[in-house]
Specification:
The protein is an alpha/beta fold and about 700 residues long. The chain has 31 helices and 19 strands. It binds (S)-3-Hydroxyhexanoyl-CoA.
Amino acid sequence: MSETVRLTRQEEIDIITIDNPPVNALGPGVPEAIQGAIESAGSDPGVNAIVVIGAGRTFIAGADIREFVKIVRGEKPRRTLLPLLTAIEACAKPVIMAIHGQALGGGLEVAMAGHYRVIAAGAQVGQPEVKLGIIPGATGTQRLPRLAGIAKAVEMCAFGEPIGAGDALASGIVDRIVDGDLLAGAIAFAREVAHMPAPRTSQRNSRLSESDPAIFAAARQQAQKTKRGQTAPLAAIEAVEAATRLPFDEGCALEAKLFGECLYSTQCRALIHAFFAERAVSKIPGIPVDIQPREIRRAAVIGAGTMGGGITMTYANAGIPVIVKETSQEALDRGMATIRKNYAGSVKKGKLAQAAMDERMARITPQLSYAGFEDADIIVEAVFEGMALKKQVFAEIDAIAKPSCILASNTSYLDIDEIASATGRAGMVLGNHFFSPANVMRLLEIVRGEATSHEAIATCMALARKLKKVGVLAGNCRGFIGNRMLGPYLREAQFLVEEGATVADVNQAMYDFGMAMGPLAMSDLAGLDVGWRIRKEFRHLERPGVRQPLVADLLCEMGRYGQKTGRGWSQYDENRNVSPDPETETLIEKTARAAGIERRSIEAGEIVDRCVLALINEGAKLLEEGIALRASDIDVVYLNGYAFPAWRGGPMFYADTIGLDRVLARLEEFETRHGGELWSPAPLLKRLAGSGKTFSSLDQEAAAAAG
Ligand code: 3H9
């Protein structure tokens, strides 16, 4: 039939198999080929029913997202999906959709145009378009409420989370769960319904009467909270609401209009950039394809503090048995109690079954000795930040671990090469920098030392996926990618308060920009003592005469470490409610005046520019130094580790959207005003701006050169 669609027959049932690896996306030619097969089978008198199924690992993962990028750049849309859906629904023979893996976006829309749907027990269905900044654009917002009811349709279209087979059956999206062979089950189902009148989803209006204004009001409120700043979720709610008051065709027309508006938005470009950026990180130039990642069957973690405990949970969650070692029984008990409390909290919230918690706890072996470390495939060190201690620990584990064992440090700032020098296996030493809370945050920076082997890198990249993290390769420098950029960002936040903005002004401006919290609120949450300890470690490297923030050290000397002590940049009550701290504000003002810093009122726009441009400029330097492989890797770090708003695409993509010439002009302004040692524009940024290029175009050129 075509390369991507096959038509075969089992007695009186025709089977259409979609085979467009890797995920059966509806790329060019695929909808047309499915339509051709439907029309051919539908008009064949020897056929009683048609089964549509996907080859490989999934049913259909949706429209081909790469096509949207081309359309936005000016290519003519193909518009082949809607005619396909009309042809499926109008087919004279019952069409049964057989779903395994995922039916997502356009994939679910195709499935809903069928007359019946059967699903494999482990499969999922969803309308995840909002995660790409668009809404379902092929009748999903009109067909889903007709099958699943209004509340479910609103939830799925506005928030984008897929649902499992059980939920899909209970809500009416599918007609049967098939245990065992899906095709056989679908054919059996087809025989049962072959001579019955085929229901058309577009005409099933009974569930539309479930409409209730409260559903839409609650969804809008939730979207404003959990999808703050994003336009697509609100458009999706509007489109589903239209299904309750407009005939099917008019509802579809409104959906198409809203889809178009979303598609041409900067938010959509940013979110699609984030989607592909996350998938690009695992492609590491220079690592030969024949390098096989080693399997990690057993892990060990040193340190049961906040980070060590979270890392231990991450391994246990991924099904990997893990030893966690501490130096005192008290610290070990405290660490295990926290792990237990975290799991119990998830059980209480209904996010984890008690049996699953018990299994995970059973995978964790708490102990004070190195017993069993000789069997570990990876050992992750998560002790206090201090080079002397880290080197001592690495020398100890090097003596015990088997030669193939990877030794990873969770350091967030220290030199991986110096740590590796304490061992006789530098090739197997690297950084595994998790982000707090390690069992929750998706980012894992994998830090390559000078001698780190390809095998160790490939193993950790594959391991990151197994741990449900997004692993980003970083070079070895102080702070790697994320924390090195955070330095100038937090520096500017502190300079701004010294120059006259209040702590609340700075936090609010960055929150309004879209960050999950402002920079000083984040410091209070992380603990001001963390940065204090690091500053002490690196004080000898401070350049004389270069302005340094003045207040954070003073707060620490007063014992004000942020949320954990109730006071820091702001003050916190016992329920962690925040309010301005007048004493801190006075301290800032007095300190700034004593240092001769001129105080003035500062607008939100300047706060955002100073903080975000500091990130971008440092990001450009990292890129030029080769610490980050791609600009998009930096975006992945900031989106997954620092809660940068996904709909802005990450700091480097954001720079592209405002224009590198404008970024450069503003940097030069800051350079003139605040000094070249802090603000001199990165040479790479100057070159790109000068030649009318972007960070994205730089990434594309590098990808093309790498083949
Ligand atoms: C839509 O359907 C709009 C409709 O309403 C119609 C409007 C008119 N297109 O993630 P993985 C690639 S919008 C193109 O590593 P996994 C991906 O880039 C769409 N490519 O695998 C990667 O390529 P590479 C709605 C796609 O097993 C490879 O496949 N659908 C698409 O971890 C493997 O991907 C979605 O938003 C695509 N649709 O996860 C679903 N999907 O190897 C998006 C994947 O070159 N996709 N690729 O790097 C996903 O969520 C996951 O990929 C999925 C598999 C769960 C399917």
